[in-house]
Amino acid sequence: MYMESGDYFWNSGIFMFKASVLLKEAEKCAPEIYSKLSNFDFTKSSEIPFTEFDKMPAISIDYAIMEKSDKIALVQLKSDWNDLGSWKSIYDVSKKDENGNVKIGHVLDEGSKNSFVYSSSKLVATVGLEDVVLVETEDAILACKADKTQDVKKIFDTLKKQNDNTHLVHKTVYRPWGYYTVLAQGKGFLTKMIHVNPGQKLSVQSHEHRSEHWVVLEGMAKVVLEGKEHILSPGHSVDIAVKAIHSLQNPYENDLKIIEVQKGDLLIEEDIIRYEDMYGRV
User: Fold this and answer.
1) pLDDT of residue 84
2) Cβ atoms of 90 and 109 closer than 8 Å
3) In degrees to the nearest 10, what's the CA dihedral of 111, 115, 121, 126?
4) Average pLDDT of each block of 10 consecutive residues along the chain (282 residues)?
5) Distance (Å, rounded) from C-alpha 184 to C-alpha 110?
């Protein structure tokens, strides 16, 4: 009836709005969400830390705002559309081999059929799988029947109930200046590989609870430590004492990679006091 009448739209979940309008509608339609959004200064940063986002009510924008707002206009979109909301949906749109398999990354297979195998870093070897999804990342491994990929949310919810930080923290974390990967962590120490993109720099900062030791792996590093500049080439290192004001910078054309070893009793990302920042996070 809907299709034949031609009088109805189907909500594809694509929304366009000014941020200021959305915030006003959230205040009106979803005050329990707005009360948490109002804690952030969006003139300085558009990011909400996941640890804060995770405290918000588990409700979609459709139910929370769109179904209650009176500021809605519909526009017809003539396009194919796929949400790619699961690994199975990615398999469906991907090019397959002669056995119906999709293999991404370092994958060796013998005799599998109609399966999706994804490797982000390690060799994944598969034998005789059928209708299976296998995904390897540096954080975890997922293996399930192809028609059960939507159930991964149940695993997420279980981790959350068990207070397992795996659902909050990933080994690789992206920042405006590049990214870092946690390599090892134990009592009183944490080791990272830090990648700084060309022309970018970390904020001028200090730490109350940890010292740091930096070793340059690739590229050239400009280190500002207590007001003095140091230019470090691969193999050279520098020590950052507790509470010392410092910054890591890459004003050059090539990528910069360093190893960072943290030492201290409290090794958390929140232990940062920023004094200057080119990304407006002060």
Assistant:
1) 81
2) no
3) -30
4) 87 87 94 85 71 82 94 86 84 95 97 96 95 92 92 87 73 90 93 96 96 98 97 97 97 97 93 91 78
5) 34
> What pLDDT was estimated at residue 41?
74
Q: What share of the chain is helix, strand, coil (3-state, %, to 5)?
A: 20, 35, 45
Q: How far apart are CA 171 and CA 248, in angstroms?
A: 20
Q: Quote the tokens at residue 215.
A: 């070793």
Q: Measured in Å, how far apart are the chain's first and last C-alpha atoms?
A: 56
| Whole-number Å distance between alpha carbons of 87 and 225 | 46
Q: What is the pLDDT of residue 173?
A: 87
Which residues does 157 contact at the CB level (< 8 Å), separation at least 6? none
Half-sphere exposure of 149 (CA within 13 A, CB side): 20
Q: How far apart are CA 35 and CA 137, in angstroms?
A: 35
Output the six-digit token pair for 181. 């990967």
Q: Which residues pair with 206 in a beta bridge?
A: 273
Q: Edge-to-edge strands of the sheet including 132-136?
A: 102-104, 116-119, 132-136, 141-145
* 136-to-99, 106, 151, 161 alpha-carbon distances in Å: 21, 10, 17, 23
DSSP at 100: S
Q: Is 151 helix (H, G, I), strand (E, B) or coil?
A: helix
Distance CA 194, CA 179 (A): 6
Residue with tokens 């910069």: 256
Q: Judge contact between 17 and 73, C-beta under 8 A.
A: no
DSSP of 6-22: -------S-----HHHH
pLDDT of residue 195: 97
Helix (H) or strand (E) holding 238: strand 237-240
Per DSSP, what are the bridge partners of residue 134? 117, 143
